[in-house]
Structure formats: structure tokens, C-alpha cells
Amino acid sequence: MEDEPVNIREFEERAKQVLPKMFFDYYNGGAEDEHTLRENMEAFKRIMLRPRILVDVSKIDMSTTLLGYKMQSPIIVAPTGIHKYAHPEGEVATARAAAACNTLMVLSFSSSRKLEDVASSCNSLRFYQLYVYKNREVSATLVRRAEKYGFKAIVLTVDTPRLGRREKDIKNKLILPQLSNLEGLLNVDVEQKGGSDLEAFASQTLDPSLCWKDIEWLRSITSLPIILKGILTAEDAVKAVEIGASGIVVSNHGGRQLDYAPATISVLEEVVKAVSGAVPVLLDGGVRRGTDVFKALALGAKAVLVGRPILYGLAAKGENGVKSVIKMLQGELELTMALCGTPSINDITRKHAQTEGDRIRS
Ligand code: FNR
């Protein structure tokens, strides 16, 4: 029998062993030189922790809230596409695992299971991630279905007016399955011109004209809170608050869109300062350890989303693998909190992290 993976890196290795190359590359790859993909992780490594000692850490409470919803920990399942590449049960397995860990899941627009099936499979807290298509009625229909089936917020992804150039998918000629939630809604002819299906599909569907005024349109069709995912600058964070967003996700799409976009952890503070507490700021990209979660919280994130590690867990061991990944990150965060002398999430402050900037200034 194979040993249990002891960290996310080992889950990644396991996923690589079991998945066909085309699917592993789709999950793991990034845009162009994959510089941003690597930097997301490297930038975390350049931040050190400032532990405080002789604090009673006999009880650690990782619980927190988001938009009024209680969460067991500040670790959230990020929206990622096509979980059926990893496991036949796809997003249903992921949702069940998230529910078992009392973890919020954001279901991707590019889900390979119907949102109705995901909703009825378990009782988890769930948000719905949206892309706005050229055919607005497709997106509007999806929003209405998400609302009806108990999704509590819309996470609008705003960093994808066009698809980033993912060279591994192009080389592999990635085959895109029918996206379950779009059945009957889209009449798109995916014609591969030597690239990946995904690229051809995205260029026919995504609306590159989407801009700030369109958020009004989205608000007019739903009463759910709207979170904007894919903000990397103070300027856009301020605009997001002005137009009434209920939250912001500092994200570069896991390095899959604009290569040389900055590592998310390196711009988190800029965004947090600009927003000055008006709405919760979340972060994703490169979170692979409990210490990464802790660093993001110390720099002002309310919570983090985790993308690829969930897919590694799903590929390695289905629903149980996703549970193991979530529990592993939660366990690592709990230990980090104990070793840093922060028994609750509110105890984690800016002073518990030391950035490169701090080292230069001191
Ligand atoms: C994504 N991501 C993504 N984001 C989104 O808004 N809608 C989507 O459909 C997808 N699909 C998707 C597929 C795959 C395979 C990956 C890896 C990522 C981006 C995702 O939500 C998140 O921003 C990143 O995954 C975070 O980076 P890490 O945790 O993977 O490093």
C-alpha cells in the first residue's frame, strides 16, 4: 500500500502519477512562461513569521465569518473547471468533501456537473462563480439557477476578457467536454485550429467588452451579493467598493491569465489598504501550506481560496482525497496559530509577518 501524502506537494506528485498528461497539465499549468504561476508560490516563501511566545494556546479557534456566514476555518475551495478530469463524480465529490469539512465551496461556471446535482448532493455553504458571456442570457440563466438552488453569492471573475495563453493545453490539444450547466444554452461551434478546444470555446463565448457599468446589469438580475474575483491593484479595489461589490478576491487566476501579473501575496496589502475595511478582501494563488494561509491573514486577508491542491486531492483519492487536503491545510494552520501565539483568527495581526519590505525598512 502506498504511503499517505504528508503534504500538498506529495498530493501533487500523486496526481501527476494517476492523471493522463493532458489533464494534469490543464490543472497544473499556467500562462506563457508560467512566471506568475511560480511567483505566486515563491513570494510566500519570502515572507517570514514573527511568533509570539508564552501565550495560552491550549485551545485554537480557526473559525471566522464571511458575508455573515460562519466558516470553520478561513480556507475556501476556489472555483476550478472540469473536476471530472480528476474523478468521475467530479464537482459532486468535491462538494461533499467541502461539506464534511464545513468549508465554503465556490462552484465554477466551467463545472462538469450540473449545479442542481452539486446543490442536492450535500448541505454545504456554496457560492457560484460566473463568467459573463457574449450571450448575456446564458449568464443570466445560470445566475437564476444558482439563486434558486441555494448558492449564497455570485463570484464574478473579472480577469478573463480573453483566455490566457496556456501553452501546455495548446500543445496537448486539450479536449473540452460538454460543460454540464451550459447544456441546451449555447450554440457554439468549437472548431479547433491546431490549439486547444478550451481556447476556441473561450474566444467564441467570453465577452471582452465587459466593463464596470455591466456590474449594474448583474445587480439588476440578482439580489445575491456580488464578489469580484481577479483584482490586483488599489485603483480597481477602490472602484469595486464604489460600485457596491460585497467582496474582493485578490487573484491572478493562479497564473493562468496574464503572465507577469504580480504574485497575489505581494499586492494584498495594497488592496487591503485601499479598501480600508469597507468589504472583505480574500486572496488566492499559491497557497500550499497552513503558514501561507497565516501569512495572508496577517497581511489583511479575511480568508483564502485554494485551487490546484483540491484537484490534486480529487485526482489522488476522490472525495476522501479532497477531505484530506482540506484537513491537512486546516491542521497546518492550526499548528501555525499555536506556534505563533495566536489562539484565534482575530489575534493574527500585521506584526506576525515580516515581508521583504519590512526587512529593508528596519
Ligand atoms: C482555475 N481558476 C478558475 N477561476 C475561475 O474564476 N473560474 C474557473 O472556471 C477557473 N478554472 C480553473 C481551472 C483550473 C484547473 C485552475 C487551476 C484554476 C482559477 C482559480 O479559481 C484560482 O484563482 C487559482 O486556482 C488559485 O491558484 P492556486 O490555488 O491554484 O495556486
UniProtKB/TrEMBL annotation:
Source organism:
Carex littledalei
Give the source lineage, highest ranks first: Eukaryota, Viridiplantae, Streptophyta, Embryophyta, Tracheophyta
**Name of protein:** (S)-2-hydroxy-acid oxidase
Signal peptide region: none
* GO biological process terms held by the UniProt record: defense response to bacterium; hydrogen peroxide biosynthetic process
Q: Where in the cell is it found?
A: Peroxisome
UniProt keyword terms in alphabetical order = Flavoprotein, FMN, Oxidoreductase, Peroxisome
What Enzyme Commission number does this protein have? 1.1.3.15
Q: Which GO terms describe its cellular component?
A: peroxisome
Does this entry carry the keyword Oxidoreductase? yes
Q: Which InterPro entries match?
A: Aldolase_TIM (IPR013785), Alpha-hydoxy_acid_DH_FMN (IPR012133), FMN-dep_DH (IPR000262), FMN_HAD (IPR037396), FMN_hydac_DH_AS (IPR008259)
Top-rank taxon: Eukaryota
In alphabetical order, the GO MF annotations are: (S)-2-hydroxy-acid oxidase activity; FMN binding
What PROSITE patterns is this protein classified in? FMN_HYDROXY_ACID_DH_1, FMN_HYDROXY_ACID_DH_2
Major subcellular site = other
Which cofactors are named for this entry? FMN
SMART domains in the record: IMPDH
* Active site per UniProt: H253 (proton acceptor)
**Family indicated by similarity:** Belongs to the FMN-dependent alpha-hydroxy acid dehydrogenase family.
**What does the entry list as the binding residues for glyoxylate?**
Y26, Y131, R166, H253, R256
FMN hydroxy acid dehydrogenase domain location, by residue? 1-358
Annotated residues that bind FMN are located at 79-81, 108, 129, 157, 229, 251, 284-288, 307-308
